[in-house]
Design a protein that fits this description.
- This protein is mainly alpha-helical and 501 residues long.
- The protein has helices spanning 9-27, 40-56, 63-75, 83-95, 100-124, 127-139, 141-146, 153-172, 177-193, 197-210, 215-219, 222-245, 265-278, 281-290, 296-315, 317-320, 330-352, 356-383, 388-400, 414-420, 430-440, 446-454, 465-469, 472-478, and strands spanning 405-408, 425-426, 459-462, 483-487, 490-494.
- Helix 8 packs parallel to helix 10.
- Strand 1 (405-408), helix 20 and strand 2 form a beta-alpha-beta unit.
- The mean pLDDT is 90.
- Among the domains are: 40-98; 164-254, no CATH class; 388-494, no CATH class.
Length: 501
C-alpha cells in the first residue's frame, strides 16, 4: 500500500529534523523565567545544590554568601547522584549563575531521546508511525513542561529510551556482544541517574527476550548476564555507598510502598488521575488500542514496557497516585504504542488521497494541528511570569536579617534560601501531615509541635496562604501574635512577644 509520507530517507530525515527543531524551540521559549512552573520544590532542590557546588569553586566570593551556599547544598537531601547539578554548576563557570542553564540541558536530553525513539519505533512499526510517536513524545503538553525542569528525570528518560533501542537491536542478534555491552552500559547509566529506572530497564530487557522464539534458551546466553551485570553495578554501587558506607541514603527508601493502599480504591483512582494528567485519557485509550495493531514480536516488546510501568506503579503506590512526574516514563511508552495505530491511519489516508492536491491538503491539516498545539503550549508558558518572585524573596530576606525564623512557605523555604539567602525551619504542609498520618498511623499534637518551634524562633513567615487556610489551628494560633512585617505576598509574625521565650 502506498505510504502517506514519502518513503525516501531524505523526506523522513527532513520531517524528523523539523519535529526535533520545533521540540527544542518550544522548550527554550521563555527560557529565563524562574523554575517554578513545574514541581518547584524538586527544581529548587537542584538549584540550591548547583549553586553550592559553584560557590565552592569561588574562593574569592563573599565569605558569608559562599558559606551559606555550600551549607545549603550539603544539608539538602541526597536523593540521586548529583549529575545534572554538577553539569549545571560546571557551566556556571562560563555563564555565571543562571538557572536557565539547567533548562537547556534538560530540554536537550529530552530531544535527544526523541532521536532514539524514532529509531526504535521505526524498527517496530514504520517510518510514518515513528514520526507520529516522536510528535506525541515531543509535543504532549505535559511532556513539554516536565522536560524543561531542573531535575534528573529528563536525563533518565533519555537513557531509558536509548536502552530500549539498544536492547531491541540486540534482540535481532542475541549473540552480539557489541549490542549487549551498549545496552548494559546505557541501562546501568539510567539506573544510576535515578534508581526507579530499574523497572523500565528490566521491563525493556525482558521485553527484548520475549521477542525471541525460544525465550528460555535466550535467557541462558552469556550476553544476557553481561547486560544484567553492567546494568546492576553502577546503581548497586551507589546504593551500597549511600546506605551502608556514607549513611545518607537509607531514609530515601522509606515510605515508598504502603501495602494497605493496594486495597484502597482511592489509590487506583489517583493513579488514573495521574495518567489523565500526564498523557490524557484520549492518548491513553489510543495507545492501549495501538497494542492490537502491532505484529506479534513487536507487540511482545511493547507489552513488556507496559508491564514494567505497571509493576513500577504497584511498588511506588503512594507516589504514583500523588506525584505526576513519577509517570513521566509513560510518555515514551505511550508513544511507542501509538506508532502502529498512527502508521495504519496514514496508510488508510494515503489510500483515500491518492492524488497530489488532496494529499497536500491532508498534510496541511496535520501541520495546522501541530502548530495549533505549539501555540497553546506557548500561550500557557507566557500566561504566568515568575520573575517578580525573586524580588519578593529578597525583600523577605532583608526583613528577617539574622533573626531565627520558622515559616509556612512554598517549597519548604527553598525559595527564601535561594533568592533571600536566609534559612528557616519549615512548618509542615497539610499534605505532609496527611502523609505522615497514613505512614505512621498517628497525628502530631499541634500545641506541642508549635510550642517546640515558637520557643526557639523569633519570627514566623507565611507566604503560602492556601496552606494556611487548610490549617485552621495554625491560623488561629498565629493570630495571637503581633505583626512584625507585611508586604505583597507575605506576612511575618513576631514570636518574641509571648511567654514562650
Amino acid at each position: 500500500m502506498k505510504a502517506f509520507f514519502s518513503s525516501s530517507r531524505f523526506s523522513q530525515l527532513a520531517a524528523l529534523i523539523l519535529l526535533l527543531s520545533l521540540g527544542l524551540g518550544v522548550r527554550l521559549y521563555d527560557l529565563t523565567d524562574l523554575p517554578l512552573d513545574f514541581h518547584p520544590t524538586r527544581q529548587m532542590l537542584s538549584a540550591l545544590k548547583a549553586r553550592g557546588m559553584y560557590y565552592q569553586t569561588l574562593p574569592h566570593a563573599p565569605a558569608e554568601e559562599r558559606n551559606f551556599a555550600i551549607q545549603q547544598w550539603k544539608i539538602r537531601a541526597a536523593i540521586e547522584p548529583e549529575i545534572i547539578e554538577r553539569i549545571t554548576a560546571w557551566t556556571y563557570a562560563f555563564t555565571g549563575e543562571q538557572i536557565w542553564v539547567a533548562r537547556i540541558y534538560s530540554s536537550s536530553f529530552w530531544v535527544i531521546g526523541a532521536i532514539f525513539l524514532f529509531l526504535l519505533t521505526r524498527r517496530l512499526t514504520s517510518a510514518a508511525g515513528a514520526l507520529a510517536a516522536v510528535a506525541f513524545y515531543l509535543f504532549a503538553p505535559y511532556a513539554v513542561t516536565a522536560s524543561r525542569s531542573f531535575q534528573p528525570d529528563p536525563l533518565m528518560v533519555m537513557l531509558i529510551i536509548i536502552f530500549w533501542w539498544a536492547v531491541s537491536e540486540w534482540s535481532e542478534d542475541p549473540a552480539s556482544y557489541r549490542w549487549a555491552i551498549l545496552a548494559g552500559l546505557v541501562g546501568g547509566a539510567a539506573i544510576y541517574v535515578k534508581f526507579v529506572a530499574a523497572f523500565f530497564v528490566i521491563g525493556g530487557g525482558l521485553a527484548a527476550v520475549a521477542q525471541q522464539d525460544y525465550a528460555l534458551k535466550t535467557l541462558r546466553k552469556p550476553q544476557v548476564y553481561l547486560m544484567a551485570l553492567l546494568g546492576i553495578l553502577p546503581g548497586a554501587a551507589y546504593v551500597v555507598y549511600g546506605v551502608w558506607i556514607a549513611d545518607y541514603l537509607g531514609q530515601q527508601f522509606g515510605g515508598r510502598f504502603m501495602p494497605a493502599l493496594l486495597l484502597n480504591p482511592s489509590y487506583y483512582l489517583g493513579w488514573v488521575g495521574m495518567l489523565n494528567l500526564v498523557i490524557g485519557s484520549a492518548a491513553l485509550t489510543l495507545s492501549l488500542a495501538g497494542l492490537f495493531f502491532f505484529e506479534e514480536k513487536p507487540r511482545r516488546f511493547a507489552l513488556g514496557l507496559w508491564t514494567g510501568y505497571a509493576f513500577f506503579g504497584l511498588y511506588f503506590n503512594y507516589h504514583i497516585a500523588s506525584h505526576d512526574y513519577y509517570s513521566l516514563p509513560l510518555i515514551p511508552i505511550a508513544a511507542v504504542s501509538l506508532a502502529p495505530l498512527a502508521g495504519y491511519f496514514f496508510a488508510q489516508l494515503a489510500a483515500l488521497t491518492p492524488k497530489r492536491i488532496p494529499r497536500l491538503a491532508a498534510s496541511g491539516i496535520l501541520l495546522l494541528g501541530l502548530f495549533a498545539s505549539l501555540w497553546n503550549i506557548r500561550a500557557e508558558m507566557k500566561r504566568t511570569d515568575y520573575r517578580p518572585e525573586a524580588q519578593m524573596w529578597a525583600e523577605i530576606g532583608k526583613k528577617i536579617g539574622d533573626r531565627r525564623t520558622a515559616g509556612l512557605t512554598q517549597d519548604y523555604g527553598s525559595r527564601l534560601a535561594y533568592w533571600g539567602w536566609k534559612s528557616l525551619t519549615s512548618w509542615q504542609t497539610y499534605g505532609d501531615q496527611v502523609y505522615h498520618t497514613d505512614l505512621r498511623g498517628a497525628q502530631n499534637n499541634f500545641e506541642q509541635q508549635f510550642k517546640s518551634i515558637a520557643a526557639k524562633k523569633d519570627l514566623f513567615v507565611v507566604t503560602d496562604f492556601e496552606q494556611l487556610k487548610r490549617q485552621p489551628l495554625l491560623q488561629e494560633k498565629l493570630a495571637e501574635y503581633p505583626l512584625f512585617a507585611e508586604g505583597d505576598g507575605y506576612i511575618i509574625f513576631d514570636l518574641t512577644s509571648t511567654d514562650f521565650h
